[in-house]
Specification:
Helix content of chain B: over 70%
Oligomer: heterodimer
Strand content of chain B: under 5%
Largest sheet of chain B: none
Number of helices of chain A: 5
Radius of gyration of chain A: 13 Å
Strand content of chain A: 15-25%
Structural class of chain A: alpha/beta
Radius of gyration of chain B: 30 Å
Shape of chain A: globular
Largest sheet of chain A: 5 strands, parallel
Helix content of chain A: 40-55%
Structural class of chain B: mainly alpha
Distance between the termini of chain A: 13 Å
Chain lengths: ~120, ~350
Amino acid sequence: MSHRVLVVEDDADLLELIRFKLANDGFDVLGIEDGERAWEFLAEDGGRPDAIVLDVMLPGMDGFALLKRIKGHEELEDVPVLMLTAVGDEDNMVEAMEVGAEDYVRKPFSPSMLQARVRRLVE
Amino acid sequence: MSVPAVDTVLWYLLGGVGVALSVLGTATLALSVRMRLHQLEREGARPEVRRIVLEALDSEPSLEAVAEELERRDREATIEVLEKYLRQLTGGDRERLREVALKLDLDDRALDLLESPLLHRRLEGLNWVTLLDVKLQEEEIAELVGDDAKVAEAAARYLHQDGRDRKATETLLTTHRQPLSTFAMDTLYQANSGDPTPILDVSRASSAEWQTSKTLQVLKVVEHCSASVPSARVDWISDLSSHSSPEVRAAALRAVRHQGWQTVVRESIDWSSVFSDVAVVRRAGYRTLGEWGDAASLRLLSEYGSQETDDRCRLTAVQALHENGAPRSHAENEGYARTWDWVEALSRAG
């Protein structure tokens, strides 16, 4: 059975790219463009993915706020989260790792590297 | 011959203006509608273009086949998608998309844009030569830049991406005297963070020409370039300690905070003058001494900090001493003792 990955990214071009790369690697990928809707999906629809790729800059609820909710939710806290961040965001990344993010990738990024990191998270 | 009445002439004039305004309004409206339709057309084409571009990341289709298929689509949508991915990606996937862009002759398009008399077209051209790693000779860049600050900043980014950091730094610091944009500050930092020799050398030769705000910007970048460099390269910073602006005097002190390992740098600063200066300069002085943290610096911190009259400066001095593990000294100054109590209490609270 393929692993389910939720990608939360507000840039449609990047979302499609990540979806394309992960789907090519055999993942079952769901893409959502904003934090609120991602939280609704996770909390209400009971859609527990095997991993989450989460952009930091999102409209509405940002990536950190969503990360805190995920890691504070007893059914979701153990879902591995990989944060997508911008260069120069090191302080925020330290905070994200302290909140519980498992990994992060800095933009600009190598899609193949992202693919490999997600694979490692679910294995 | 009868002369038309003033009222009639006025009415004709008003009528003429009215007609001109209606024509202008209609033309503007038509242009907006056309642009909107074009934008919708591009947006409509985008998902398909994106699909073809993404499929190029697979090794299956040949680059020729991908380019051929993209040629049949909306060219502007193709350019937008490729630009987005070339900007956001690195590694082998980016390289493959760069090759697709070259197959579509976007490098030739970039060179044509550089010839445009319009500034925004030239900037777009520079953006594309940067994205596609098109090699430009230094003379071509100099000619392109002229004395235009915006073009200089875009050209500097290109030069940095191309590994020509000294030339990038020169372009930013010598083309004009005005302050740099945030984008240019970032380029300057990126070009010098590994080895600050270019920024130090170029500044040494040209800092006298700059406006105060630009001097402050350059000192800020130098402060964050932590690599150590020979003392001869930072002597121009010491000279700024007598600058007329207190902000520059303070920034000069902060800029040498990573160079304290050099006796020459440490000895080039007249501390009695620093600690008789205004608060912003004294505070910078305490911070820099705290960064150096050697025995002589801690002695100076203790000596001047215990006589400090400004609360914030005193706090900076005591924090620097405390962070360096210096023992608490007992001075007559009541404020000094109180500041130590506060810093120790903060430390205990974690």
